[in-house]
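To: structure subgroup
Subject: Chain for Friday's discussion

All,

I'm putting the inputs and outputs inline so they're searchable in the archive.
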Amino acid sequence: MPFSRTLTILILIITFSFQVQAQGLLNKTVTVEAKKQKLSEVLNIISRQGNFYFSYISNILPQDSLVSISVKNKTVRQTLDQLLDGEYLYKESGNYIILFKKSPGQNYYQVTGFVTDSKTGQRVPNASVYERQQLISTLTNNDGYFRLRLRDKTPTAAISISKDLYTDTSVLVHAGQDQEVAVNISPVAYQLRVVEITGHNMKVEKTWWGRTMLSSRQKMQSLNIGSFFADKPYQASLTPGLGSHGRMSSQVVNKFSINVIGGYTAGVDGFELGTVFNIVKGNMQHVQIGGVLNVVGGKTNGVQIAGVHNQVLDSMRGVQIGGVSNIVESSTNGVQISGVIGQIRGDMEGMQAQGVLGIVKGNTVGWQVSGVGNYTGGEMSGAQISGIYNYAGRGASGAQISYIGNISHGTVRGVQLGSLFNYARHLKGVQIGLVNIADTSSGYSIGLVNIVKHGYHKLAVYTSDVINYNVAWKTGSTKLYSILLAGFNTGDRKVYSFGYGIGREFNFNKHLFLAGEITAQNMYTGTEETSQMIRIQPLLNFRISNKVSIFAGPSLAFHLYDEWNPKPGYLSEIPGAGYHPFKLGDSGNGWVGWQAGITIF
């Protein structure tokens, strides 16, 4: 278990134990009848009935002074207030009640009491009791009992009582004296709550971090008094609930916030630093730094930095830097930088840079850069650059560049550059890769294999001046199609060839069009040495029907080789007699040849 979490749990256990003890000894009831007895003897009577011990410094208490008291079934606290005239403070430790003399100018008083359901008469547990000006609060125990220690600042003060599904109630108390009050609260008419799945109602308390790092009492407090907020210039805390604002920290928006281990505040309007974590219910603006974690339930506007993880449950505007990960539940306008993974569940405008994976569930306007992959669920406008793959759900306007492949299930209006493959539902730009696939295309696919599902598919069977039997598969679009070809000769002029080419069609009318093609093919003539033949050819096509056309045309051909020594029985002369070739140095020759055939599909 991480050290910070262990320390947090330990502190909460100690605090809880102290509160349970305090609610146990001082609230025990005693009955005392004494007339002109020594104060020390009366204290012994009280301690024996309560089965505990008093502890005090002898010179602060007049033990031999004679006192008279008559109480019946009163709490130990009430009995001590009457016996000591409210001049002492009480603190519990184990089975001891420690008595302290109030210092001059230390004007504190305590308000105790019970909170009761006005309809049923039953005591109400886990009700929030708080003073709005001093930001001091507590929760009632299982018996509906509460105790507040307030500073004596004004002649009167008001305490507020709030409980989920009950009407908020306020009670005036007299300052300067310990007192007990009885408070009745009324339940509200039951109605189903309206639950929103975006915005501020996605409470930080419901996140995994909130469930792990916040106590049930803190979450209950937040639920009870969710509509009360205060602004303060600063706060400091050790852990959530142990700080300058106590349990009211979750209801205070601070200009300056320091959390030694972690903090839980209503909002930040300036600067917040947490050695381990910061949890903010509402909005954060300007600067927030967490050694491990930042969680913001509202909007973030400014700079957010965490050693491990940042999570914003609304929108983000500014810069977000996480050593491992970042999550924004709504839109982002700015920069998100993550060591491993970043996720934006709304739209993103700006830049997302991740070590491994970048995810935008909405639209992207800007740049996504990652070591492995980028994902945009909506439309991407800008650039996606990754080591493995890029994905755009509803189209890409700009550039998709990756080492392996790119996918767009919408319209691509820019460039897809992938060493292995590219896919676009509708291509209006350019694809460059080994294999390019599109459902429909009015753009350009440049690669070894170009497939347009509802586009250009033709099979050509033809003969030429060099090779008698040839077949070519042409795919892509009329603007640019790729050609995979193969051919052979038989008899005493054997040759085998295969190659690749590109072409484009120029339509003249319904039946007549010109196809301009460039092809390159390897020639095998029985030995390990191969040669290449390159042909540049305008082919005039006559369309007989939608599926069939015939073509013929001249070719400017080049035969290139380092060494060419055909095996007997293979083609020994390229071109054949009568073509008047011209030399290309010692590595080949060129000539004007021809090609003719039929195209189907």
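Points worth raising on Friday:
Confidence is low (pLDDT under 50) at residues 1-23, 192-202.
The two ends are 68 Å apart (CA to CA).

D.
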